[in-house]
Amino acid sequence: MKISSKTINIILFVLFSLFAVVQLNDPDSAVWFSIYAAVAVICVYSAFKTLPKLFLIVVIALLLGYSLFYFSLFIDYLQIDHKEEIFGTMVYEKPYLEGSREFMGLLIAALGVLYQLKKRKD
Question: Is the pTM of this model over 0.85?
Answer without folding.
Answer: yes
